[in-house]
């Protein structure tokens, strides 16, 4: 097993997640498309445009080998993503909701085919920086990251228009599982004696238990044992919202139950700020 833990194969779930998103978008009233979302400055229409950007960016890069926009002088990855995401969203404001839906419906299966052609355990097309920066990511983690991106944006739309859904365990549990793979990277600055373990428990129908252990000079995903040095428990709604900056770290801590090593529990409750800062979530 690598530092990232066991393989998560989300590829069969992309059509189901997309169908739920498209059904949601088709049901919206014109006023719903202008409702603000948790993403600063973006309304529902903008979120749909951003998801289209994700589809087109990965088709262009992963399928066609096209490099796309280049980094500006001195740009970090988060700055680059913020700039290019905003540029695309501004352009898609010229598109009708119907055309956005049609483009997502047309391009989605083509992206599914790209993922289906990947060997999940081969090197990733894009490394997952919130999981490790010194070890290449496997393809399954890269693909899983994309699934979390699409699912999370769907939830942001649902929140904005007051239409819950797509939270059944079959769709949501893999999202939480992928996010939990940020544990070793979140703990990287806190070396501990060999075998020290930290447990994360997410409560709810889609939740689960994950563990990271200090083994061989670094934190790695591990099988949960009986006596961790630190433990954090939170509900599944808190967990995914922390991952995507839907709530602050302070709010997540108020909604969590930590025990044990305070430095470790503090790091665990910031782990998914790592996702938002270094990934593609706005």
UniProtKB/TrEMBL annotation:
GO terms for molecular function: isomerase activity. Coiled coil: none annotated. Residues 16-157 form the Mycothiol-dependent maleylpyruvate isomerase metal-binding domain. Keywords: Isomerase. Gene3D superfamilies: dinb family like domain (1.20.120.450). Pfam families: MDMPI_N (PF11716). NCBIfam families: maleylpyruvate isomerase family mycothiol-dependent enzyme (TIGR03083). This is Maleylpyruvate isomerase family mycothiol-dependent enzyme. It comes from Microtetraspora malaysiensis.
